[in-house]
Amino acid sequence: MAKKFSVLINKKWCKGCGLCIAICPKKVLELDSKVKCEAVRTDDCIGCRQCENICPDFAVTVKEREEDA
């Protein structure tokens, strides 16, 4: 079974710079109407954590989801 991941965005810390959106290989992230990062395709996330690593404001966290067997 493939691992699943959750992408959590702290909207108070996000300044909408778009670095995480640009680096994501699976296009999981987009800017919302308030110009803040939003995870729109979390099922596509492969857990590479590039978004988490590039965020200058530490607003992005990637966690492995618990899957029910």
Quick structural gist:
This protein has 69 residues and is an alpha+beta fold.
Structure overview:
It is built from two helices and four strands; from the N terminus they run βαββαβ. It is α+β, with helices and mostly antiparallel strands and 69 residues long. The protein has one domain (5-64): Alpha-Beta Plaits, CATH 3.30.70.20. The strands form two sheets. A two-stranded antiparallel ribbon has the order 1-4. A hairpin with a 5-residue loop joins strand 2 and strand 3 (37-39). The longest helix is centred in the N-terminal third of the chain and has 5 residues, at 19-23. The protein is globular. The N and C termini lie close together (10 Å).
Topology:
Elements: E1 5-9, H1 19-23, E2 29-31, E3 37-39, H2 50-54, E4 60-64
Antiparallel strand pairs: 1-4, 2-3
pLDDT < 50 runs, ≥5 residues: none
**CATH topology, what is it called?**
Alpha-Beta Plaits
Please estimate the helix content: 10-25%
Radius of gyration: 12 Å
Principal-axis shape: globular
The SSE order reads EHEEHE
Strands of the widest sheet, in order across it, are 1-4
Largest sheet: 2 strands, antiparallel
| Number of continuous helical runs | 2
Class derived from helix and strand content: alpha+beta
Beta-strand portion reads 15-25%
Overall average residue pLDDT:
93
InterPro entries: 4Fe4S_Fe-S-bd (IPR017896), 4Fe4S_Fe_S_CS (IPR017900)
Pfam families: Fer4_7
Keywords: Iron, Iron-sulfur, Metal-binding
GO molecular function, one term: iron-sulfur cluster binding
